[in-house]
Predict the structure of NACHT domain-containing protein.
Amino acid sequence: MGDLRAPELREDEDIWVTLLLTEPCSDRDRLIRLKGQRVQGSSEWIRSNELYSNWLGLDSGNQILAITGGPGKGKTMLSLSVTEELQNLQWQTPRMDVIYFFCDSQDERRNTAVAVLRGLICQIIDSRPNVANRIWPHLDTPEKAWFKVTSLQALWTIFTNILEDPDVGTIFCVLDGLDECDNYSLSVLAPKLQDLFSPCIEGPVPNNFRLLISAREIPWLSNTLTICLNSDAKQIMQRDMRNFIFSEVKEMSRARKTNHFVRDRIRCNVERLADGCFLSASLILNDLSRLPTSAEIVEALEHFSEGLDAIYSQILLRIKAEDQHACSMVLKWVTMARRALTVEELAAAIQPQITLKNNQDIIKYVTLCGPLLNLCDGEVILVHTNRSHAELAQTCFECIQESVLHTSLVNIKDTSRLSQSHLLEYATRNWLEHLKLSPTYADQIFDLSHPFFQEKSQLRSNWWRSYWKAGPKRWEEADIPLLHLSSYCGVLPWVTRLLARPRKLFSIHKHAEKADRYGRTPLFYAALAGHVEVVQILLREGINVHATDKFGRTALIEASSGGHQYCVEDLLRYGADVRVADKCGRTALASAASGGHENIIEHLCRHGADPNGGGKGLLELSILGEAVSAGHVKVVKFLMDNGVDVNGSATSLLGRTALGEAIIGKHLTLTNLLLSQNADVNGRGKFGSTPLGCAISSANTSMVHFLLNHGVDVNATREFKNAKLPEPKYSFVSLSDHGKDVRNMQPLERTALGTAALRGDISIVKLLLGHYADVNGRDRYGRTALQAAASIGNYDLVVLLLDMGADINMNGGFSRTALGEAGFGGHLSVAQLLLDRGADIQRTGRLGRAPLAEAVIGQQLAIVQLLLDRGADVNARDHSGRGAVGELPGPQIFTLLRSRGAHIRDPEDLY
């Protein structure tokens, strides 16, 4: 995760850095370099395709389109062509944006749903910086930012919120190779994308969003309009294939001065062997291009057979016997690595088995592997991946054992340290992933006498802490016991072996019950990470399912928060208590609601969790409030279907109703949903906040307009019902015009117009005035919108309010007059305007202070000069008998006042 900088930086830049995982534009350019420029005329058939034309047309209802085909059928080249055409259209079409993402199963930065969403959001922010205002509340603290940028559900909520933003125009989105995402990502993201355009889903379909998905034929695309390259476009694709082969063979023949008879023979043979597969054609042509003469090319073609597997075999068999072992090691490492390896990393990885003189040797072996591998930007890229990981795990573990991790942590950004072992950064990050995918090897290396597995292991501690420094941190860097680590990592063989150890003499606790320094048991860590098999083993050991850590959190709360349904089911089966709350008051149900895990909420409710009951989070949000705040439409609908009161009293620390939470979060779909269930548009929260006040506070002009059209009371005030005013600094006398002490006044109520004016939001002020807001409406301190505008020095807003009939001399409560506010704040142009428009220069506020005294208190020399020049009484006194000279002026103001005749009547005037 990127470093979250201080709030004074531009929000759009800050958010972009935080979300940035990979740059889709750079990934696209790299693909073009790897695959080469497309042959002129190829892929142009898509423009005349009826389904594509309908998808492209803004008046059409076809907003989602799929392009499917087998491996090597040219899907990615077609996606590149579509993005190129869309970008050309973008220059001609106002308010149109093009975003895309090219998935890659070999790159961990491009093979998850989280990576896809982060990439798409970054592109929208890049083209529409104003969208940052909608995202910033989700990322304004490091804790929130870490959760949001690593949570698929949270990112999905942010993404759908962006689509509802009125500042966003039409978005054309191309997702290429979505089937290359990991299985979990595919199972979650794919249905969400399809549901986005389903009319049966609650909430409006974003008609400004057009999605094109390119992937292999997979079940979840069955109900989507599809162009199938294997059938629908087979003849057209074969024509493109022939053009591609013709172009490549022509270039190859020109270099070798081949006559047209031989050239046609080569072309026909390649077409036959490729059998409509671009990948097969590319592999064959790349392999043939290495041969120096046409005769050798013709001979080589005789040894090829149809089918990718046969082509791969033929290419590998061409490698000389003395180089085959080295090439085998290169292919094994590149195919099984979790990301593309650099030349230096690859050399370090195979060095133990192969003697290399320098990097040129490794480049030689990469070259010998021919079209199976590519060298791009210093990284070795392959075509297909393999899922065997034991040898990679072994080499990574050996690298860790032989590294400086025996004595110190590793900073993966320290190039000087990493230059001593080019593989160390990769091994530190990815050893665990390879290990989990090779349980047999994990069982083989387990040895309690080994330094890594000893009870107190500096090597294990340093690796673990370096591992967490290299990625997102869920907790502080600290050592945890081996069983806890194994449970969190899901290394089942280690967990089984560790549980089978005999207990120490006089030990009363089972191994599974021992807590670490945080009070967490192995069950806690297994539930946190969602390793259901480990959870089941630990539960069978009889571990206390109710155990809490030092923060009061249980395994059930962690599993519910993470969305691990099967872990939740097992924990409930063993009697986990759904009513337990952590020290912040948050229950498993509240955690599941915040994460948007509808299935888990249903399970918890069936086991006695009360959606209307307690169990609130850090901000004391209700269960409904948690779901609304996070933007989870389905969860909110489920809760309402199960009897949750949408108008229940808001008890959060922020004092907002569920409708207020939806408005603050700019969740238009949820706002509509709550209103459809009779949410009170004028309902007040704990501190009296209203939905209209929430919309104004979040500067959401469209929502203000929406609420005004739904009958909201424009002149309602925001009341802090239980708030207590602080003791005043000075003693106040009774106010004769109201006959009561100001300390006994009711706490602040703020009008909608006053709130908008205090924010300086002219557009909302105009909107409210257009709906008959009282321009002279007061808050409970007697403050009007004009006084609020003057206090922030907003000249244009002051002019607007005066033109709309605002009383220029109104005062009351603790408030100053408008002129007093401008004087105190040092807003010279506003003060001049008010005086020119007839403001009473001697009109006092409720404490009896004239504008001159307020300017002196604010140490505003220029305002003091202006007021004196306009005839202000230099010796006017407030209710306590103090004059302007007694308000502790600075030396310059004191001299000015004395020069204008101020005199000291009482020693108090000097204090």
Observations:
- DSSP finds 45 helices and ten strands in the chain.
